[in-house]
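Reopening this one. Same input as before:
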Amino acid sequence: MSQAELIQHIPRLRRYARALLRDAARADDLVQDTLERALAKLDLWRPGSDLRAWLFTLMHNLFVNQVRASGNHAPCELDEAHDVPVSGGQAEAMAVRDIHAALARLPPEQREVMLLVGLEQFAYADAARILGVPQGTVMSRLSRARERMRQLLDGQQVTKLQAVK
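Same output, byte for byte:
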């Protein structure tokens, strides 16, 4: 792996980190930690394999470790001052804000799958490897995430399922 190959993945790593954390400074720290880990563990990367998937796996594992270490297992609150890209019109800006807010309300495991498959366009098998779960789990989480996003964006009340004993 060359330095140029590593550098070309930084924008996607930053985008995923910012979507996960919704805090630019913390996201940049996560990207830096990911790149440091990648360079330290370079001997574990198999030439010819998907470098992007390997980097995202490293980032996901670092993110999970940071969440566990902080003891904060609840999703982050959406920062109202967060920079939201605006395409030039008020309606578009409101739609982007609504999507960000709905995404923030998803459980972390659904949000991760939605970002990997929907935003970063990983195949189900690649997302499953990154998250360390079976492919069927990725598919069901994505299905539930999409349905919940539809409900949230349509203004429907989203109820949580209760366990039946």
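So the earlier flakiness isn't reproducible anymore. For the record, The domain at 83-158 is CATH 1.10.10.10 (Arc Repressor Mutant, subunit A).
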